[in-house]
What we know:
Helix content of chain A: 25-40%
Largest sheet of chain B: none
Mean pLDDT of chain B: 89
Structural class of chain B: mainly alpha
Number of domains of chain A: 2
CATH architecture of the largest domain in chain A: 3-Layer(aba) Sandwich
Order of helices and strands of chain B: HHHHHHHHHHHH
CATH class of the largest domain in chain B: Mainly Alpha
CATH class of the largest domain in chain A: Alpha Beta
Strand order of the largest sheet of chain A: 6-7-8-3-9-10
Mean pLDDT of chain A: 90
Low-confidence stretches of chain B: none
Strand content of chain B: under 5%
Shape of chain A: globular
Order of helices and strands of chain A: EEEHEEEHHHHEHEHEEHH
Largest interface: A-B, 39 and 26 residues
Strand content of chain A: 15-25%
Distance between the termini of chain B: 39 Å
Oligomer: heterodimer
CATH superfamily of the largest domain in chain B: MetI-like
CATH topology of the largest domain in chain A: Rossmann fold
Number of helices of chain A: 9
Number of strands of chain B: 0
Amino acid sequence: MSTSAKTKIAIRNCNKIFGEGEKKVVALQDANLDIAQNEFITFVGASGCGKSTLLRMIGGLETLSSGDISIDGHAIDGPGIDRAMVFQHYSLYPWLTVRENIRFCRQLKAHTENRSSADVEAASGRADALLNLMGLTASAQAYPNQLSGGMQQRVAIARALMGRPEILLMDEPFGALDAQTREVMHDLTCAVHKIERATIVFVTHDVEEAIYLGDRVVLMAPRPGRIDTVFKVPLPEKRDKNMKHSPEFLKMKLEILDRIRETSGMKTDLEQLEKLSALANS
Amino acid sequence: MDAFVPPVTPVQARRKRSLLWSVRGPITRRQYLLLAALGLIVPLAGWWLLSEFGGVNKVFLPAPPDVLRRIATWWVDDNLASDIGISIYRVVGGWALSALVALPVGLAIGTFRPVQALLEPLTDFIRYMPAVAFIPLVMLWVGIDEGSKIAIIFIGTFFQMVLMVAEDVRRVPTAQIEAAQTMGATRMELIEKVIVPSAKPALVDTLRITMGWAWTYLVVAELVAASSGLGYAILKAQRFLQTDKIFAGILLIGAIGLCIDQMFRFLHRRAFPWLKGGK
């Protein structure tokens, strides 16, 4: 990502407050961030840091208490077909086959108004291409309940891509998967980013995942939820599993983990623990 | 590690017993069928033995063959078929009317918070009012013809049904709804293409359960100036001390209810094959 890249998503002075009075919780405080066109940006942080809230605000699923978020210079107002979202789980439609799930958006007016017959054919070809890209061709007629968790998330990604969104929002999409499946999904996501040329905003609590996938990593901190530091990942654009063992990668991972501990209060927990063990040993 | 070899037989024996009684433990199909048969046969045999040899007067406790004989004569001489027919008509009528209103109202309560605020507390209040106590009112308002029986069954099932439908609708995972929102679904599309299909299996179950409740209100409904029906036959039999007919009526209602229940379960399996898969 060069500095001259066009800004796709502009987040300005964003605040989100849940509840009122005594129960008031500041979920996000004064967030400011520019996300470039075609960038792969990851949000990482301890729970309660507001990373999912910010993502949902970009997706239009959550309102802003103050500030604004704009896409290509236009302030957002609710969800839109330019911003598709992939959820952690339970988002597939179990009564539809894999193919029908992927084609779901074609049933919606937003995607079918003014469509020509050529458009219908193109959509059918697109569904096939996505099935192919995600390695789902053999499961096209299966129901989601018959698939493994990894396969289900592939369907969810394909379904989100079907409408050719300019922005793909991913909310801990691999959080429920085992480590091996997750690695495969990482490379698949990188391929999707390259092929589909979408801007991807990816939320995770896994620091390694955040660095491996992101052009930049946004570290967020809790109480109140806020953007703490933005790291530029010093890895080549084309990622490779072996890079996870490179000194640059490990250095950044330690740096981020340390900062998470410092900002989330885990450090005080550790100090407390050390004091206790010192007491126990004396 | 191999210095101590535990005695094999007692450990295994103990294990076998504890598995069957372990919480949510496994059971073989054979064991299941055996126990199910036992559960049906033991009470039946107990009833038979008690009525034949227990020294109980047949007027109070008729034997199973007496009841069967009564069902046969009822069928031949007293037009059992028409009693069954009219009772099914009343139950299904009251239940269907209730479903017709409860499904859209429950859908609205489960989907829109203002509707929930407006109607749910009221429904919660009314459902605790005994349906039986409405009989005098129903007689005053609806009269004493078929409408009044259907009205009683409606009152008995409707308010519970609304709340259950609303709960079914609320159980639709938020992620399913939000995914459709980010794909540009309108409000109507969300209801039509996500919420309704997603809640459908639960709704069919709710309809099945409330059908059972509708049957329990049949006898109550037929208290109201009826001259036909299974519930009415049971009430009349009491006046003539025909205990065998009371037994016959109760068993018939049970059997019909069981048949309808099984039909719903069959429909559920056929209509929602995608529920299978186990994940």
